[in-house]
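BUG: 3D viewer hangs when loading the predicted structure for this chain

Environment: internal workstation, default settings.
Expected: structure renders.
Actual: progress bar stalls at 90%.

Input used:
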Amino acid sequence: QLQLVQSGGGLVQLGESLRLSCAASGGNLGNYAVGWFRQGPGKEREAIAGISSIDDKLYYEDSVKGRFTLSRYNAKNAVYLKMNDLTPEEIGTYYCAEDLRAWVLTPHVATYWGQGTEVTVSS
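Structure tokens produced before the viewer hung:
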């Protein structure tokens, strides 16, 4: 049973950076597609980044392209999301999610979820 433990959220100021971590146990993360999701206050959970289980191809939602970077380190069995130039519009709870499908870019296809981590950006 794959388990995901997240870390790295917190409070930052406008324009600052954070790196979120998602560490897996109970399975080889390299076999899974990973999605990073954000759920803002009163909003639905949406995918902002992902990596394919087939070829490690990356996906970024348009608003984060050029600022966010997803990376996977199989040796550490972990995935990271580096977020630069954060804005208050990106406040929310961030989740990593995994599945053996090719992609995890919608919440309903994810089998495994991290516990979520809060990101707050002050202006």
